[in-house]
Give the backbone structure.
Amino acid sequence: VCGGPPRVGSAGGLASVYGNVGSFGLAIVAFTFGDGALGYAGVVLVVVNVVGVLVGVAAARWHEHGALSALRIAFSAPLTLAVIPAVIVNGGNIELPLWLDRPLTLVAGALIPVMLLTLGAQLGRMTKPRVSMDVVRAIGVKLVIAPFLAAGAVMLVGLGGVPGGVVILQFAMPAAVFTSIIA
């Protein structure tokens, strides 16, 4: 996505792939298509988060550790590993015992505030931002090219109506706060 040093390319790729399909994207989907579309948005959220973590962690590590090691690290990241039991529990409509459900619910509720605190701490240490061509390219890919690619993919697989619209809209979301956490 971006030229220059590997770290710049990694950051640009991560910002281009990992959109804010959670708090921001879900709200936009609900506003645009109604609450009935949130199930489709949830599927997109899981896919984008898993792919974003895999791409982000691998891209951040590949130039220091090599491709195979970076992939191993990406596939063993906690968020990646958490998807398997989450799909089993949610897909199987399994009710967790109270002793497990309560702490998981507390941790889940703290995730966004902790990420925002982390982002605030990072922003507090920043100097005046410099908008380079690398940043412009990454933003262009995320906000312009990604929705067109999503529209092409939606047409290719024959996904129409609200589900197709949700996919396109979610892929048009700006980069997520979580990209700064991964970076």
